[in-house]
C-alpha cells in the first residue's frame, strides 16, 4: 500500500445516513484496485457481498481476523481495520499497493481499546490515486491538524432525525430497533417482545456473520418487526429501521460503567430513518423502572448533528524495536511528539505482552522471536476472559511458534473438536462460537500451521454449524412467527384483513405461518403455541374462518348421504360425524326411532341460516338411515297407534317397539293370549316372529340393525354405547356386554345364543315331541353352533324338557308368578299403570 500522498486524501465527514460508505464503494469500484477498512467484521462481510455482486467473486477478497477469502486474482479488498495490509514490522500479510484506499468510521480513533489502530490507518493507509477518510464531522479539526493537505467534504444527512420521547415496550412502533448494552438485557428484551409483539431479531457483535445475517434477514423480510441489538448496530449496519429505542444510556467500556457520549448516542440513533425516510429515537420504559432520559442538550445535539469537535486521538508508535521484549514494550509505549496524539490506554495485546515478559526467559527473546511473540499477542480475546486467562493461551501458542515451529495438529484438532457441538442453549453456543473464532484466527496464519488451508476450512465448517444452531435457538426462543404475523397484520390492515388460509389437510395459516388446524368445523390452536398466545390465535381464526366454514357447511348441506356417518364406538356418546368430524350428538326424542339432534359447539361459528340448513340436512339423513335399517321397528311403532288394529296387537307392538324389537315371550304372555287368528296374521305381515321363547323381528337381528338399535337405546337411557358383538356371531361367551347381547341373544348361563337360533332349536324340540320322537335336540345344529352342554340343558329346560340319563323327558313349562315389570317412566304403559293403581 502506498504511503504519503496526502494531496490525494479526501475526508468525507458527516452524521449517519449521509451515504459515506456507499460513496466509498462506488469510488473503489471505479479504480483498478482498492481496499476499505471497516470497524466490524460484520460490516466488512456485508460490503464484501455487495462488491462481489458488482465485480465477481474472483476479483474480491475478504480479510478479517477469523476469515480470509483471497482469490489469486483479487483486486478489491474488504477488511477490518486491524487486517488492512499496511506496512508493518510484524510478521503477517505483507503490505499491498492499491489504487484506492478508504478507512471507515475514523472517529473511532478515540476508542480506548482499538483507537490507536484507526489512528494508524488514518495516518499511514494511502491509495496511489485516491484515499478517503470516512467519519463524523467531529473529526474535522484533527484532519486539518494531522493531514493539512487533505480535502474535507461535509455531507448532510439524507433524512431528519427527531426525538420521540419514552415508550413502553408494548407501544413501540413497528420496525423499531431496541439497543441494550449487555447480552443479558438483550435476551430479556427479546423475550418480552416475543410475548408482546411475536418476537424480535437479535444482533450482537459476538455473533458470527452467518448468524447475524440470518437474524437481520429475518427482520428485513418482515418476519419480525423488532430488532434487539447491542451498540454494535451503530457501526454502519444498514437496516430498515424507523425508530431506535435506548434501553439504557450507560455502558461498561471495559474499565467502568459510564454514560454514553453524545456522539455515541447519535451514532446509534442515526440507524433510524435510512436514505430518504425520516426516523425517530427515544428511550424505553420498562414497567416500574425509571426510563433513561436524554437531557435537552443531548436531544438538541443529536437532532441538529452538532457535537463538540474531537481534540485528540489515541496513538501507538508504529516503529517498533525488536532488540528484545523489554525494548519492544518501551517502543510501544513511546509517546508522540504531536500533542493531539495521546498514548493509547493499555489494550489487551500489550497487557498480555507485559504479563508474559514477567518471565525472564520470555523477556530475553530477541529479533525474530520477539516479533513472533508480539504477533501471538495480537490474537484477539474473543472469549472476553481478560489478560490473565488470555495470556495462558498466548503462552502456549508461542511455545510452539517461538522458534519458528508450528502448532501441533493434534492440539489444534482436539480443541476445535471440543467446540464442534451444536447442543446446548444460546449462551453455550455463543461461548463456543467465541472459542472457535480464536482457532479460525490461528488457522489464517500461514506461518503458525503446516496446513493452514485445511484447518481454515475445518474451523469455517464448525463456525457455520454453530452459527446455524445459534440462529435456530435465537429464533426458537425469541420469535413466535404466528404472533408476529398476526400483530403485524392487525396493526397494518386491521383484524378483518388477516391473510388466513386453509390448506387441503386443514392446516390454518396466517401468511406463511401455521397457527392451528381446522378439523371439520372445529378449530384447534397449534399445540406448540405458548399459553399466552393461544387467545390471540383463536380470536384471529374465529374472525377470519367464516368464509371457509360457510363453504364447508354449504358443501355438506348438498352432499350425498354417504358423507355422513354414525359414530357409535363402545363407551362413547352416539353422534353424527362427517369424515370423522363431530357434527351433532343424538339425544332422546319423541320415540326410540325419532331421536333429537344436538349440534356440536363448533357449528355455532356458522351463521344462523347456514346452521339451520345443515341441521335440517342431518335430520333428513338420520330419518333415511333409520328407515333403511330399522324400517320394521318403525312399522311396529305405527301399528301401536293404528286404530285399525285390535287392542292386543296394539299392546304387543307397542311393547315390542319400546323394547327395540326383541322381548322374551314370557313378558308378552297377556297380549299373546288375547290374539285372534286375524291378529296373528297382522303380526305376520309386520314380520313379527312369535317364537317359543322370544318374540322378535328377524330383520332387526342383522348387524347394522343391531348397531342402530343399541345406539338409539343408549341415547334414550342416557348411557354410553355398549360394546357390540362381532357381526354374525351365533353365540357369545360370558364376557359379552349384557346391554348389547340382550338385543339379539338369549342368556343361557354364561353363554348367549342368538334368539332366532334358539327359536329353531325350540321349534325342532316341539316338532319331535309332537311326532313322538325320542331325541328333541337338533344335534347337527347344536354341534355346528358349538353350544356347551350346560347352555343346551338350560335351553331345553326353558322349552320344557328335562334330562333323565341319556333321554329327554317332557315336563311342560312350569308357570311361575309373573314378575311385576315396572314400566319405563315417560311411556304410555307408565301412564296406564298409574290409572290402574
Automatic annotation (TrEMBL):
Residues 1-157 form the Helicase ATP-binding domain. InterPro entries: DEXQc_SUV3 (IPR055206), Helicase_ATP-bd (IPR014001), Helicase_C-like (IPR001650), P-loop_NTPase (IPR027417), RNA-DNA_Helicase (IPR050699). It comes from the Bacteria. GO terms for molecular function: ATP binding; helicase activity; hydrolase activity. It holds the Pfam family DEXQc_Suv3. PANTHER family: ATP-DEPENDENT RNA AND DNA HELICASE (PTHR12131), ATP-DEPENDENT RNA HELICASE SUPV3L1, MITOCHONDRIAL-RELATED (PTHR12131:SF1). This is ATP-dependent DNA helicase.
Amino acid at each position: 500500500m502506498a504511503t504519503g500522498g496526502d494531496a490525494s486524501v479526501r475526508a468525507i465527514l458527516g452524521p449517519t445516513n449521509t451515504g459515506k460508505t456507499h460513496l466509498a464503494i462506488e469510488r473503489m469500484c471505479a479504480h483498478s484496485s482498492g481496499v476499505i477498512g471497516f470497524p466490524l467484521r460484520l460490516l466488512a462481510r456485508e460490503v464484501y457481498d455487495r462488491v462481489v455482486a458488482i465485480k465477481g467473486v474472483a476479483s474480491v477478497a475478504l480479510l478479517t481476523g477469523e476469515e480470509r477469502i483471497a482469490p489469486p486474482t483479487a483486486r478489491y479488498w474488504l477488511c477490518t481495520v486491524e487486517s488492512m495490509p499496511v506496512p508493518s514490522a510484524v510478521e503477517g500479510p505483507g503490505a499491498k499497493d492499491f489504487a484506492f484506499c478508504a478507512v471507515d468510521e475514523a472517529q473511532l480513533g478515540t476508542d480506548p481499546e482499538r483507537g490507536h489502530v484507526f489512528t494508524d490507518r488514518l495516518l499511514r493507509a494511502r491509495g496511489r490515486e485516491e484515499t478517503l477518510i470516512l467519519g463524523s464531522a467531529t473529526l474535522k479539526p484533527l484532519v486539518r491538524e494531522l493531514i493539512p493537505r487533505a480535502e474535507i467534504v461535509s455531507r448532510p444527512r439524507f433524512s431528519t432525525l427527531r426525538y420521540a420521547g419514552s415508550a413502553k415496550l408494548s407501544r413501540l412502533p413497528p420496525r423499531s430497533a431496541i439497543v441494550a448494552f449487555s447480552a443479558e438485557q438483550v435476551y430479556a428484551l427479546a423475550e418480552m417482545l416475543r410475548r408482546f409483539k411475536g418476537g424480535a431479531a437479535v444482533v450482537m457483535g459476538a455473533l458470527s456473520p452467518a448468524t447475524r445475517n440470518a437474524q437481520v434477514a429475518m427482520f428485513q423480510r418482515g418476519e419480525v418487526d423488532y430488532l434487539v441489538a447491542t451498540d454494535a448496530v451503530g457501526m454502519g449496519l444498514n437496516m430498515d429501521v424507523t425508530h431506535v429505542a435506548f434501553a439504557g444510556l450507560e455502558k461498561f467500556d471495559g474499565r467502568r460503567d459510564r454514560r454514553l457520549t453524545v456522539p455515541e448516542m447519535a451514532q446509534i440513533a442515526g440507524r433510524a430513518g435510512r436514505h430518504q425516510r425520516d426516523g425517530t429515537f427515544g428511550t424505553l420504559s420498562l414497567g416500574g423502572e425509571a426510563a433513561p432520559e436524554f437531557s435537552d442538550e443531548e436531544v438538541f445535539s443529536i437532532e441538529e448533528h452538532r457535537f463538540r469537535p474531537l481534540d485528540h486521538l489515541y496513538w501507538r508508535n508504529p516503529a517498533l524495536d525488536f532488540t528484545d521484549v523489554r525494548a519492544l514494550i518501551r517502543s510501544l509505549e513511546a509517546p508522540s511528539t504531536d500533542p493531539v496524539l495521546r498514548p493509547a490506554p493499555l489494550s489487551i495485546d500489550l497487557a498480555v505482552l507485559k504479563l508474559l515478559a514477567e518471565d525472564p526467559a520470555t523477556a530475553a527473546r530477541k529479533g525474530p522471536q520477539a516479533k513472533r511473540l508480539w504477533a501471538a499477542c495480537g490474537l484477539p480475546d474473543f472469549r472476553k476472559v481478560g489478560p490473565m486467562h488470555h495470556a495462558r493461551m498466548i503462552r502456549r501458542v508461542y511455545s510452539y511458534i517461538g522458534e519458528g515451529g508450528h502448532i501441533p495438529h493434534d492440539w489444534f484438532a482436539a480443541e476445535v473438536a471440543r467446540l464442534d457441538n451444536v447442543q446446548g442453549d444460546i449462551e453455550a453456543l455463543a461461548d463456543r462460537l467465541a472459542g472457535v473464532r480464536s482457532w479460525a484466527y490461528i488457522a489464517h496464519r500461514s506461518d503458525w500451521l503446516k496446513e493452514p488451508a485445511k484447518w481454515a476450512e475445518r474451523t469455517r465448517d464448525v463456525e457455520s454449524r454453530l452459527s446455524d444452531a445459534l440462529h435456530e435457538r435465537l429464533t426458537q426462543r425469541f420469535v413466535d412467527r404466528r404472533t408476529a404475523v398476526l400483530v403485524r397484520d392487525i396493526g397494518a390492515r386491521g383484524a378483518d384483513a388477516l391473510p388466513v388460509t386453509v390448506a387441503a389437510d386443514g392446516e390454518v395459516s396466517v401468511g406463511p405461518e401455521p397457527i392451528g388446524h381446522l378439523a371439520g368445523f372445529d378449530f384447534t390452536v397449534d399445540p406448540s403455541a405458548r399459553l399466552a398466545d393461544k387467545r390471540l390465535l383463536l380470536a384471529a381464526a374465529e374472525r377470519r374462518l367464516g368464509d371457509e366454514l360457510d363453504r364447508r357447511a354449504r358443501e355438506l348441506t348438498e352432499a350425498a348421504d354417504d358423507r355422513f356417518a354414525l359414530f357409535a364406538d363402545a363407551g362413547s356418546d352416539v353422534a353424527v360425524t362427517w369424515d370423522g368430524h363431530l357434527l351433532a350428538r343424538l339425544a332422546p326424542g319423541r320415540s326410540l326411532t325419532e331421536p333429537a339432534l344436538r349440534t356440536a359447539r363448533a357449528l355455532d361459528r356458522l351463521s344462523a341460516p347456514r346452521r339451520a340448513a345443515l341441521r335440517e340436512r342431518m335430520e333428513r339423513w338420520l330419518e333415511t338411515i333409520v328407515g333403511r335399517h330399522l324400517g320394521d321397528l318403525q312399522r311396529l311403532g305405527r301399528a301401536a297407534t293404528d286404530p285399525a288394529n285390535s287392542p292386543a296387537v296394539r299392546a304387543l307392538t307397542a311393547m315390542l317397539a319400546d323394547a327395540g324389537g326383541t322381548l322374551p315371550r314370557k313378558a308378552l304372555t297377556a297380549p299373546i293370549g288375547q290374539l285372534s287368528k286375524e291378529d296373528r296374521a297382522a303380526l305376520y305381515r309386520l314380520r313379527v316372529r312369535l317364537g317359543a321363547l322370544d318374540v322378535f323381528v328377524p330383520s332387526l337381528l342383522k348387524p347394522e340393525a343391531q348397531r342402530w338399535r343399541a345406539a338409539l337405546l343408549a341415547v334414550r337411557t342416557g348411557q354410553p354405547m355398549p360394546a357390540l358383538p362381532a357381526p354374525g356371531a351365533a353365540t357369545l361367551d360370558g364376557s359379552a356386554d349384557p346391554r348389547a347381547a340382550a338385543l339379539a341373544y338369549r342368556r343361557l348361563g354364561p353363554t348367549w345364543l342368538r334368539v332366532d337360533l334358539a327359536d329353531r332349536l325350540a321349534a325342532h324340540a316341539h316338532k319331535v315331541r309332537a311326532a313322538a320322537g325320542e331325541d328333541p335336540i337338533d344335534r347337527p345344529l347344536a354341534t355346528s353352533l358349538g353350544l356347551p352342554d350346560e347352555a343346551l340343558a338350560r335351553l331345553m329346560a326353558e322349552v320344557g324338557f328335562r334330562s333323565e340319563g341319556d333321554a329327554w323327558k317332557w315336563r311342560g313349562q312350569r308357570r311361575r308368578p309373573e314378575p311385576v315389570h315396572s314400566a319405563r317412566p315417560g311411556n304410555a304403559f307408565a301412564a296406564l299403570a298409574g290409572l290402574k293403581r
